[in-house]
Each structure stands twice: as structure tokens, then as C-alpha cells.
Amino acid sequence: MKMTGESSSGNSEITMDDVKLLIKKKDEIEEQIQAYYDVLQDGVGVEGPLVDVEGYPRADVNVHQIRTARHNISCLQNDHKAIMVEIEEALHKLHAREKAKREQDESEVQEESMELQVSLPPPFARVDAVTEGSPASGAGLRLGDEVIEFGSVNTENFQNLQNIASVVQHSEGKPLRVTVIRVGQKVQMSLTPQRWSGRGLLGCNIVPVQR
User: Fold this and answer.
1) Which pairs from 67-74 meet CB under 8 Å and 24+ separation?
2) Picking from 37-41, 51-55, 61-65, 203-207, which range would have the lowest pLDDT averaged per residue?
3) pLDDT for res 178
4) Is the Cα torsion angle 24, 26, 28, 31 positive or negative in sign?
5) Closest CA to 42 of 59, 55, 61, 26
6) CB atoms within 10 A of CB 64
7) Does the N-terminal or the C-terminal CB of the chain have fewer CB atoms within 10 Å?
8) What are the percentages of helix, strand and coil residues in the chain, rounded to 5?
9) ∠171-208-193 over CA atoms, to 5°?
10) Measured in whole angstroms, how far is the alpha carbon of residue 60 from the centre of its chain?
11) What is the spatial distance between Cα 36 and Cα 73, in angstroms, rounded to a whole number?
């Protein structure tokens, strides 16, 4: 009995559906083998003699049917071994391709992260304190945030902290766009300098970054 070569072509495109099809064929072969074994069980079994003591074909069994069943079992067992090899190879290729895809996806994520880091301007200041309940805390500013934009102040025009202080003083009650780098990612927020229960208009401490 000859198996179809569906799984032998397009090895690089093996899918789980292909594997399921192979498993289905395996199950069908096993059912056929069992059916032929049932035929033999009703007769003389797999190894029983087909001739009597005098060498003549036995008259109490269907010799032709038994020979056919034995032959078909032998062929089906070979087919079973072959399809088990196909299933193993298909699973191996499927797992190998999934692993390669995972590695490629991880590599692309790393490349995107590196590209993002390269495209981000260098920070000119860092947040080293944020008071709970302050305007800075409410806007989402966090300890360790690296500032790349504070209102009209950015990496290109920053000279000293007086630049930020001036922007804050002239923007009381007005939202300022603040952009920071947090864990390698750019984060934007709106910060409105205003009076609150604590000192100053922000409630945070910003220090310059040495460049």
C-alpha cells in the first residue's frame, strides 16, 4: 500500500494542519491493521499453519482470506512506520520554524528598541525627587525620569536650570508639555505649574545631566 506524498512537498511550509492530517492517516492505518487482526483471530492467527498434517490446504479456514490479511498487515505495518517518521519530521520542522520565528521577533523588538534609543535626543536634566500630591506627581512625573523637553526648553537650547525656572514662573496655571525618557521609552505628559500645599509650583526637584 502506497502513502500519498502530501507532506513530503513544501517542507518549509509545514503547518499544524499538516501534522493533524498525518496523525489522522496514522489512526486510519492502525484501524485497518486491527480489522485484519480481527479476521485472523477468527481463523488461525498470524502464525498458524494453513496446511493440514498431510500438507493440503486446510478446509476449516478461508486460506485465501487469511493470506490476504497477513499480507495486508505486513504492508500496513511498513506504512505505519513510514508515517510515524513523517510525523516526527513534521513536528521537528514545525517546532524549529516556530523557534526561528520567536528569535526573529525578539531580534526585531531589540532592533526597534535600539532605533528608538538612537532617535531620542540626549536628556538635559533628571528628576531626583517628586513629592506626593504635588502638581508634578499628579502629572505623572516620576523619580529617575530623564527630561528631553520642558515647555519651550529642549536639549538644543538648554543652558542651565534657570531656563526651566523661568518657564515655570511664566506658566503658572498654564499646561506645559513635558517629555521624558523612562526605561528607554519616550513618555509625554502635561504639567501645570500651580500653587499647592507644598513649596514651589511643581513639587519636584530637577537636576542637570552632565553632558
Assistant:
1) 69/36, 69/39, 69/40, 70/36, 70/40, 70/46, 72/1, 72/32, 72/36, 73/33, 73/36, 73/37, 73/40, 73/46
2) 51-55
3) 96
4) negative
5) 61
6) 10
7) C
8) 50, 15, 35
9) 20
10) 63
11) 7
> Regarding predicted confidence, which is higher, 162 or 110?
162
For 166-206, the pLDDT digits (tens) are: 999 999 999 999 999 998 889 999 999 999 999 999 999 99
| Residues making up the chain, counted from first to last | 211
Instruction: DSSP letter for 48, please.
Output: -
Residue 195: helix, strand or coil by DSSP?
Answer: coil
CB 172, CB 194: distance < 8 Å: yes
The identity of residue 64, as a single letter, is: H
Q: What is the pLDDT of residue 160?
A: 94
